[in-house]
Write a structure and sequence with these properties.
homodimer
Chain lengths: ~350, ~350
């Protein structure tokens, strides 16, 4: 049997299956840094350490040992299926008859990094910036499309001492396509515990990252909360309608509410001069989405929109309003159709021309 | 302390950290199916099971229990950061002061599925087809860009009893953009062990998949080998140049080799009628890439190109030839510059107009 084993990012996220398989192996094959990190588990076994760049050789030696009747484990950091040893092994499997192989998946760098950053992921892409085996133009094309489609992006192998061009291209593309406010989560695992930081793309300094760094690129909805990087999925927060909200939406449905800035109102401007008042009460309240400036009043279960101008801007009202009439036939539809309302809001934030 | 714990796809890929944290918890909160799968570990603890769709409620109950001074674990299948409970939890964290939280990353469905399929991943995207919280047009846009850029795509939540439209849209887009030969890895984990199958997109039957299925969409280089789905990364296989190869490339460099079909040759057509003979000996030999029809002769370390026509087709020669002269100044450059040669080949397979 040949095991291809992901040992995770550290002992804590090694899987039970990986630990057992390592213990039951006769021979352990791997890059020396990874083998050193599991030396206590594999003590006394036959060890074949090879350097970086010897990947094919490592697989061939493992197969040779297996033909001698030994149970062999090839170790990979993280998950062997994500830029790991499974990707080296399987293209070679057809060279031989009857190889019994099992892959032990592991916690990959993107999953580990996300766990330290909080909850940065939504739909995402994982792209390696190493152009050793992949043309740089192919990497550029993938980055380009991932950035255009608002995917979160996990970056593997961001830079090395001799390979800085792909990183510079990456930074340029993020700035051009997703903009200077794009948040980047930086997880550096060169030392333990890993160092974690969230910066804006313009402040991402190439001297601060290396081969042990994973980057997570936020999307248009990602925000920073304390030390966390969070991308909201848009879960509905249950909430009772305020009587004044019910009153407003009854008037809205009857066509009795103002459009544009309501300078007659005694509270105008409750947010800022020039604000549109078409939705005096936000139809998405409480969205619970801190990316727009709203925030929770601590320990009170009250969502405070004072610093959110979103629903008072003309362009957003123009996007939202034509659809609200279909969704809100009576005030309680604000609760009943909340999921659809939040999806409408999401589409308008992303300015997706095809939606609604 | 609140732990947000990924329990993996089954016991074997639960992490050591997850197991310990579960054991040390007072209260376990989670979707009932996941809690049932760890009942032996959490026996005797306070258990709060909630149904699907109660995610926000689950988090609020966990926080409440934590305020009572208890160590609480919220469980997620797979990785809690990938469409899991971390994504529900963190947008709510700012409601309260001083919540101590730790995320235990896990083996996500895509990593597990890849491990059963062999090595299908290269650069990839992970996209959920659930349009409960995400507008379908946003999902479509992400699929569109991921397909255009040759990313492998892992599909989460492909279909449910009441939600078939996103799946049909997905299938249509794959057919249109990546073509009918696109390979799809299907991993269904409704029963144990999981059922694994590789089909072409046109044979992907919606009646055969459900909420427990993960799909892996291959790219233009992905191939099927026995029951495995493999996407080659392009590792260099070391090989000695054959004397006849050296002889051919010396002539090639001197401009003494034929162009187009060499009907004078005693072996013509060695592959098929009409073949171009500009590269009588393939400059990429051995590419080790079974996706082009080549294959290993079992147990002999010989790569057999008999069924590969790639280097004998005019369009490929037109793409490759202008650059070969720069790369091959003497025959041994075939070995020395193998990485660059394989990248050139890759760019021509992908027909990337920007590269080379």
């Amino acid at each position: 049997m040949i095991n291809i084993i992901g040992i995770g990012q550290n002992r804590e996220n090694m899987t039970l299956g990986a630990l057992n398989a390592l213990k039951e192996s006769d021979v352990i094959v791997g890059y020396e840094k990874y083998i050193d990190s599991i030396s206590d588990i594999v003590e006394g076994k036959e060890i074949i350490k090879k350097g970086m760049g010897d990947e094919v050789k490592r697989v061939e030696m493992a197969i040779e040992k297996n033909f001698e009747g030994k149970t062999v484990s090839i170790v990979s950091s993280g998950d062997p299926g994500v830029f790991g040893m499974a990707n080296v092994f399987f293209p070679l499997i057809s060279k031989y008859d009857n190889i019994d192989v099992k892959v032990y998946p592991g916690v990959s760098a993107l999953n580990y990094s996300a766990s330290l950053l909080g909850a940065p992921l939504h739909d995402f892409a994982a792209i390696s910036l190493s152009d050793l085996l992949t043309p740089l133009a192919e990497i550029e094309n993938k980055l380009h499309h991932a950035l255009l489609s608002n995917l979160i992006i996990a970056i593997y192998n961001p830079i090395s001492k001799s390979r800085k061009e792909p990183f510079r291209l990456f930074k340029k593309l993020v700035l051009e396509i997703r903009g200077e406010d794009t948040l980047i989560g930086i997880v550096n695992s060169e030392t333990y515990p890993s160092k974690v930081k969230v910066v804006k793309i313009q402040d991402l300094d190439e001297d601060k990252i290396n081969m042990s760094t994973t980057l997570i690129v936020g999307n248009k909805m990602t925000y920073n909360e304390g030390s966390y990087m969070i991308t909201p999925r848009g879960y509905v927060i249950k909430y009772q309608l305020h009587p004044m909200t019910i009153d407003f939406y009854q008037k809205f449905i009857n066509g009795e509410t103002p459009t544009g800035p309501n300078t007659e109102c005694e509270f105008y401007p409750c947010h800022e001069e020039g604000q549109y008042c078409d939705f005096c009460y936000c139809p998405f309240y409480p969205c619970g989405d801190s990316s727009t400036g709203g925030k929770w009043i601590k320990n009170k279960n009250i969502w405070n929109c004072k610093d959110c101008m979103w629903i008072h801007k003309k362009e957003n009202i123009d996007c939202v309003k034509p659809h609200i009439a279909d969704m809100i036939k009576e005030p309680k539809d604000l609760v009943k159709n909340k999921k659809e309302l939040l999806k409408l809001r999401r589409a308008c934030i992303l300015k997706d021309p095809k939606h609604y």
